Amino acid sequence: MARSRTVTAAERNTPRYVVWELTTLCDHACGHCGSRARTARDNELALAETLAIADQLVALGTKEVTLIGGEAYLWEGLTELVAYLTRLGIRTSIQTGGWGVTPELARELASAGLRGMGFSVDGTEAVHDALRAKVGSHAAVLRAISAARSAGLNIAANTQINRLTAAVLPQTARLLFDAGVRVWRGQLTVPMGRAADTPDVLLQPWQILDVLDTLGGLQMAFAEEASAQGLGPDDMFNIVAGNNLGYYSPHELILRSDPGGTARHWTGCQAGVYTMSIESDGTIKACPSLPTAPYVGGNVRDVTLEEVWSTEPALNFVQNRDRSELWGFCGTCAYGETCGAGCSFTTHCTMGRRGNNPYCYHRAKTLAAEGRRERLVQVLGAIGTRYDFGRFEVVLEPLP
After folding, report:
1. Alpha carbon 218 to its chain's center
2. CA 270 → CA 8, 13, 288, 314, distances in Å?
3. E-assigned strands of the chain?
4. Which of 390, 394, 276 minimizes the C-alpha distance to 13?
5. Mean pLDDT score of the chain, rounded to an integer?
């Protein structure tokens, strides 16, 4: 399983990878949920509409779809959609919190053609259950992982990294390895949705140094352990830096390269370059994580995907932007042209616009060498809608 979604030149300008939100109905109410999922939207797409969209996706060259929620398994018609996407030749997976993933459901979806499940595991039991506001959530997701493995599905795990989970990264890595997970992706918690309401849970920029150093050290330790035990590539534990985790640290290659040894580094946001997303009401975006209001690229009920993919500014802003978008530290950084200030959704939700990313290893390390660090202060709160955000300002202060 690939550890990086770094796109090749031949893959650009095609929505090869689509993340599709089927519903905002959820059996959790997680404190970091960007869509504030709990209840379903009133106008969510029906099964017949989704099948027609699937036809459009395959015509555009889509090769892989990840179905999300809320919880995708709470959406009526999931099995039928999975089977239809599979018949079209699209590799299909689901991202889930795992509460309702039973052995029976896992076998049913595997029979329909589902290839894999990604499970959200946010630390140890106490931390996970606190963040997900549900006692028993951690135990449930571990049972779900076991059910998915027994059904023959490929499995991966994802962890939101914030002040609570950062403290238990080594314990989280070990419990996931013991549970049979072999691909673990870390993603920074970003102040969007409910996470914007609890800024004290977010990491401060200087803490990114410890996080990356810890993950890099863990990857090396697991690699040495695997070598000592004579384990093959399929048994290796692969720790992946998510799109908003980095950048240009000494661990960049081992946390962003693939298991085959191909060296990779961050080459900029890929929203609308080879990714696209669809929300449960039909809203089209370049990336599922982007805040909705500034990035609506149309609605599948009004336009075809082909109409907007190459022409809608909200979808192709990455391909059309240049260095003039950068400001603050990123505007002076030598990596700026390649990096583009990192993850667009992270910068926009944190700073109120793209182009200046305080969550950067290279930036924090450079400032630390000068005896300084940055602290984020929230100056504008979110308004309480799905995929909303506020705004923070950067305070530059002496390093204690």
Report:
1. 20
2. 11, 10, 12, 13
3. 17-21, 64-68, 91-96, 116-120, 154-161, 183-188, 238-241, 275-278, 284-285, 372-380, 391-398
4. 276
5. 94
Number of helices (H) and strands (E) in the chain: give both, helices first: 13, 11
Nearby residues of 366 by Cβ (< 8 Å), 6 or more positions away: none
27 and 140 in contact (C-beta within 8 Å)? no
Q: For the purposes of burial, counting CB atoms within 10 Å of the CB of 337, is it exposed (0-12), middle (13-18) or buried (19 or more)?
A: exposed
Q: Which amino acid is at 327?
A: W
Answer whether 300's CB lies under 8 Å from 310's CB. no
pLDDT tens digits, 54-92: 999 999 999 999 999 999 999 999 999 999 999 999 999
What does the CA dihedral 286, 37, 187, 295 come to, rounded to 10 degrees?
A: 20
Tokens, residue 208 = 């990114």
Q: Quick check: 289 and 310 in contact, CB under 8 A?
A: no
The residues facing 373 across adjacent strands are 397
pLDDT band at 4 (very low <50, low <70, confident <90, very high): very low
Q: Dihedral of CA 239/189/313/355: which sign? A: negative
The count of C-alpha atoms lying within 13 angstroms of the C-alpha of 235, restricted to the half-sphere facing its C-beta, is 10
Q: What is the pLDDT of residue 2?
A: 29
Residue 385 above 80 pLDDT? yes
pLDDT of 20 > 80? The answer is yes
Q: How many CA atoms lie within 13 A of 391 on its CB side?
A: 8
CB 350 within 8 A of CB 377: no
d(CA 34, CA 199): 13
Residue the block writes with tokens 């398994």? 73
Indicate the DSSP class of residue 35.
Answer: T
State the pTM of this model: 0.95
Half-sphere exposure of 139 (CA within 13 A, CB side): 3
Say if residues 335 and 325 touch (Cβ distance below 8 Å). Answer: no
Q: First and final CA of the chain: distance in angstroms?
A: 42
pLDDT tens profile 235-244: 889 999 999 9
Radius of gyration of the chain (CA): 20
Position 9 scores a pLDDT of: 53
